[in-house]
Amino acid sequence: MYKTLMDTVGNTPLVKIQRMVNPDTNSVVLAKLEGNNPAGSVKDRPALNMIVQAEKRGEIVPGDTLIEATSGNTGIALAMVSAMLGYRLKLIMPDNMSMERRASMAAYGAELILVTQESGMEGARDLAQRLQAEGKGKVLDQFANPDNPLAHYQSTGPEIWQDTEGQVTHFVSAMGTTGTIMGTSMFLKEQSSAVQIVGVQPTEGASIPGIRRWPKEYLPDIYDDRRVDRVIDLSQDVAEDTMRSMATQEGIFAGVSSGGAMAAALQLAQEVENATIVTIVCDRGDRYLSTNVFPTGNVTHG
């Protein structure tokens, strides 16, 4: 029978990093290419699951208005799923997010509400709750919604276990809402408690789209630090340099948070022996072009 768009979420490729890994290491680094999801990021998984599960519980019905605070990828994914299933969507985001992200959300029919860069995601989250209190829609709340990590427990974790034939020793993920690392950790640790779960966050003052160093009062409710064995802090420069190297050395065109996760995975490969390290490449690089993090290239006129 024919597939629907919903059926194409997940089952993304897991590929071996070839040129960026130090040839002296005997560890393997594998990248899960989440940009292959239909809306282009790992957030397609929780976006679909949050809406479908809320529907099953009778909390929402098609035609309702959904509200979400987002820095980009979740908003794009929710916009796709809302369009597919017949929901109206209000997205609230800081005004320093890339134009490509805004344009993608609008293309799916979402309404965008911008808060200032100074207000940040904390301000966006506060406004989302206020709009819900005013009766203007339902907040899905990716930061506290258990259906976010559940999506990764049910799909991302099992896919990694299957594709590595149970050989994965380390899982590395950037931490934003923390849904990816929480759900994947839960599944992998059930298969083998020896699997090491490594989170990546920005150094103090760094601004890396998709990764946050949350103030304590805004730490996502779904986050449980017992599910993370180690947290690596990475600077914005390292994340961006690694992101560019991924494109030029591996042919993997991804965003800055993916560069941060890859940098941490490559660091691990230098520290451990005979490891199978899996990292999440959470989106595609084309939604960052207007931010000038990529070179304009060697362009000449003939």
UniProtKB/TrEMBL annotation:
It catalyses: O-acetyl-L-serine + hydrogen sulfide = L-cysteine + acetate. One of its GO terms (biological process) is cysteine biosynthetic process from serine. Pyridoxal 5'-phosphate binds at N73, G176, T177, T178, G179, T180, S257. Residues 7-283 form the Tryptophan synthase beta chain-like PALP domain. Its cofactor is pyridoxal 5'-phosphate. InterPro entries: Cys_synth, Cys_Synth/Cystath_Beta-Synth, CysM, P-phosphate_BS, TrpB-like_PALP, TrpB-like_PALP_sf. Pfam families: PALP (PF00291). It comes from the Bacteria. Its EC number is 2.5.1.47. Pathway: Amino-acid biosynthesis; L-cysteine biosynthesis; L-cysteine from L-serine: step 2/2. GO terms for molecular function: cysteine synthase activity. Keywords: Amino-acid biosynthesis, Cysteine biosynthesis, Pyridoxal phosphate, Transferase. CDD domains: CBS_like. The modification N6-(pyridoxal phosphate)lysine is found at K43. NCBIfam families: cysKM, cysM, PRK11761.1. Belongs to the cysteine synthase/cystathionine beta-synthase family. This is Cysteine synthase. It comes from Hydrogenovibrio crunogenus. The gene is cysM.
